[in-house]
Amino acid sequence: MTTDSERLKWSLGRATTIGLNTFREAVRMKLFLAMTALAVCALASSFLFREFNFGSSELKFIADFGFGGMTVFGSALAVIVTAQLFYGEIEHRTAYTLLAKPLYRSEFVLGKFFGAWATVLCFMAMLALCLVFALWWRETSIMAEFPEEFVNGRRIVRYGDILGFAALQSIRIGILCAVVILFSTYATSALFSMVLGMLVWIVGQLQHVAVEAWATVDSLILKGIYALASFALPNFHLFDVGERLALGEALPGSLYGKLILYGALYGSFYLAIACISFNRREF
Amino acid sequence: MKLALSISGVTKDFRIPGSKRWVRAVDNLTLSIRENEVYGLLGPNGSGKSTTIKMALGLMKPSVGECSLFGVASDTPSARLNVGFLPEAPYFQRFLTGRELLRYFAKLAGLSRPETAKRIDALLEKVGLEDAGDRRVGGYSKGMLQRIGLAQALVGDPKLLILDEPTAGVDPVGAAEIASIIRTLKSEGKTVLLCSHLLSQVESVCDRVAIMGRGKRLLEGSIDELTLGTDSSSLQLDGASPELRESVAALAAAEGARVATRRRSLEDLFLELAKGGEGGDD
């Protein structure tokens, strides 16, 4: 074995290089442009609600609308963008040249994951800022029109919670990106990864049903299937905190900590399997 | 002499999708490429050349046998530390400019920033793309893609270059320039594995050649060994009169030999072997 070969260590630098290039691809492939257009449309549509003149309840409506948009658009984009950015390298055969370099395949997998996740995070940040701006702007107008609804003239919207909600959705999206990366490592088309990713998104949203069924069902086989589904699939329902926030409930700091840990565990789990799967793939 | 690439008893079988049948792309292949050698790997389409290269680079695992680069098993990333690869019909990140693409690969190769800047300028000049370095790769012609592909293969200053059809889509002037680059690389002590259908180029730059067919090595040797067999050599008589030529031919005929008008080219040899049987999947 040569001296040089002994020197090649797993490098976060190489993974970062791939991640940054992935992010640059998303920016240059006009995905960002589409995302920005979507965010601006969302902002513009929230402006329309001023005609309804709901008073302070209008703010809850706008918040609900924004939270829903972040969850739905963010998840859909996570699936589409990740499949496109990861499988695109295989489909366009650019991966051949990359993987012929002194590069660990796990560096490639993690780089693509972080690049795709960063892309969707930027979109989430844009949507969150648009929502904050729309709420602040509308709240200011309502305060002038209905001052009696604001005790001591204090704002009722907690803007920090909106950013907190965006942060929690970003964790959910990170898990979803990791799932799509996993499927892409053995997929034969980007569409395959997208369809499976969408499926996990929907099933993950209903995962808590499987957990409940696990506790009540008698059949050992069904119990086994439910148990497997409960552990293998993430429970995205845990991240549905929008309703609580819209009702004015403050989220405890421990919830953030638990969900970050939950996301890190599931994300790492899927990425570890993705690395193993991609290592076995032939080109 | 130290080996740059060693392929030992390698067989690669592929399962035909949707059936239980298998197809053998490479069959018990053994090749050894010595350091500082320009080695040509020839064969008709489907003879197993690309599969062989992919296994050599660790992009595929052999069903049987072993591949190693500079003594390190090909399936480990460490083995590729000293290797540059230009794939057949190269596809690159279309959204990057030529310069950005080289910078990307230089970063992956671990080059420092000042080293990268110098190297990129030198490489763009070497492959004749100094004026196109700031244009997006997506707008490059086929020939320009081959050139930027060659530059990215060279960016890490590798000891072994694996070039799969480097002249495909390149005009004759460009092909001659690539041949010249290969000769320069050899003079710099590099090893080159060249797959090409441009046999005259292979003949002019390669030290040794292997011809593959149906996944097997049909022939291997130096250009002279392959084209100047003991019974097929010819004499070149510069400035000889017709009378002298006739005399020489008559003398040869009296000894049971024949004076050929030209030496057998690599192309003749290739066609003979290709006609002898080809097929399989690459």
Architecture overview:
The complex is a heterodimer of chains A (283) and B (282). Chain A has one domain. With 283 residues, chain A is mainly α. Chain A contains 12 helices and no strands. With 282 residues, chain B is an alpha/beta fold. Chain B has a domain of 174 residues: Rossmann fold (3-Layer(aba) Sandwich). Chain B contains 9 helices and 10 strands. In chain B, the strands form 2 sheets. Chain B has a 6-stranded mixed sheet, with helices on both faces. In chain B, strand 4 and strand 5 form a beta hairpin. Chains A and B meet through helix 1, helix 2 and helix 5 of A and helix 2 of B.
CATH architecture of the domain at 3-92 and 157-228 and 264-275 in chain B: 3-Layer(aba) Sandwich
Helical content of chain A (DSSP H or I, runs of 4+):
over 70%
Structural class of chain B: alpha/beta
How are helices and strands ordered from N to C of chain B?
EEEHEEEHHHEHEHEEHHH
- Low-pLDDT residue spans of chain B: 278-282
Q: Strand order of the main beta sheet of chain B, please?
A: 6-7-8-3-9-10
User: Which of globular, elongated, flat, extended, rod-shaped describes the shape of chain B?
Assistant: globular
Please identify which CATH superfamily of the domain at 3-92 and 157-228 and 264-275 in chain B we are dealing with.
Answer: P-loop containing nucleotide triphosphate hydrolases
Number of helices of chain B: 9
Structural Rg of chain A: 22 Å
Topology at a glance:
The complex is a heterodimer of chains A (283) and B (282).
Chain A (H helix, E strand, L loop, with lengths): L2 H5 L4 H17 L2 H18 L8 H35 L2 H6 L5 H41 L13 H28 L3 H16 L1 H10 L3 H13 L9 H5 L6 H28 L3
Chain B lengths: L2 E13 L6 E13 L3 E5 L6 H8 L7 E6 L2 E2 L9 E4 L11 H11 L4 H14 L15 H13 L5 E5 L7 H16 L3 E5 L3 H7 L2 E6 L2 E7 H5 L14 H13 L11 H10 L7
Parallel strand pairs in B: 3-8, 3-9, 6-7, 7-8
Antiparallel strand pairs in B: 1-2, 1-4, 4-5, 9-10
